[in-house]
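User: I've been trying to design a sequence by hand for this structure and keep getting stuck. Would you show me what you'd pick, starting by listing the structure so we're on the same page?

Assistant: Good idea, let's start from the same input. This is the structure you sent:
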């Protein structure tokens, strides 16, 4: 059975003290309340907090993630953080290719592909984000666009490597807007993407890959989304900043 994920993306929110409280609350609630052994809770916190917060983890149901990394091992890349650095402070997952990084920081598929390679070489799990704009959806090119993002950033991998990647489909029009894709829209895209993976790697490999949905996931809509056969969890922004809401999302998977 594919692994299921409730992944929180804090983005650029919370001071150290606020974050410490939130992180501890979620960890404790998840430890006490989450009973599904196939669900992993991941929290992607601001980079300065990674080292400290990784020590607050008191259950293997929770892992800590970074929100970005640089593909090079070391060197003159002011302000950047390498995979080895993240690994050395207990990070297990790294979000890459988020639409905010693609849009505001000009990240290309090629650069993201290099991050995928660096993470896999370092033994960390990439959470690879993809997704279309509203204009692309309205023009009817959304399936081809997101399939292209896969082809450009993932299809150089062999099957073993690909199966170490977690995918997050996040339609840009649904991020931070309160407009969630319907569970049917999410399922439709996830199925298209899984079929796209199957076309290159075969069905068995495609069936092993967790594809999360992101974009205004909350405690009120997670159950419906996670009930879809190809939706393996959520990448959650706003609602991951509230411990009770995020824990409820983690508990929203079918038994
Ligand atoms: P949101 O963000 O849940 O606030 O829409 C999701 C994301 O950007 O990962």
């Amino acid at each position: 059975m594919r692994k299921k994920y409730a992944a929180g993306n804090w983005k650029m929110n919370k001071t150290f003290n606020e974050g410490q409280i939130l992180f501890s609350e979620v960890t404790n609630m998840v430890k006490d309340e989450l009973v599904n052994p196939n669900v992993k809770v991941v929290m992607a916190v601001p980079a300065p907090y990674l080292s400290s917060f990784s020590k607050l983890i008191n259950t293997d149901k929770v892992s800590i993630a970074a929100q970005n990394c640089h593909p090079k091992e070391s060197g003159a890349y002011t302000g950047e953080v390498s995979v080895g650095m993240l690994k050395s402070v207990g990070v297990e997952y790294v979000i890459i290719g988020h639409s905010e990084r693609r849009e505001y920081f000009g990240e290309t598929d090629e650069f993201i592909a290099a991050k995928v390679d660096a993470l896999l070489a370092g033994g960390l799990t990439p959470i690879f984000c993809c997704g279309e704009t509203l204009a692309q959806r309205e023009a009817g090119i959304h399936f081809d666009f997101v399939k292209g993002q896969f082809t450009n950033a993932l299809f150089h991998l062999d099957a073993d490597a690909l199966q170490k990647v977690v995918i997050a489909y996040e339609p840009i029009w649904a991020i931070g807007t309160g407009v969630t894709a319907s569970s049917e829209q999410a399922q439709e895209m996830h199925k298209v993407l899984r079929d796209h993976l199957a076309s290159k790697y075969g069905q068995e490999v495609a069936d092993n890959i967790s594809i999360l949905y992101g974009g205004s996931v909350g405690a009120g809509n997670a159950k419906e989304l996670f009930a879809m056969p190809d939706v393996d969890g959520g990448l959650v922004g706003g609602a991951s900043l509230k411990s009770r809401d995020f824990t409820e999302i983690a508990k929203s998977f079918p038994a």
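That's my pick for every position. To get oriented when you compare it with your attempt: The chain has twelve helices and eight strands. Residues 183-201 form the longest helix (19 residues).
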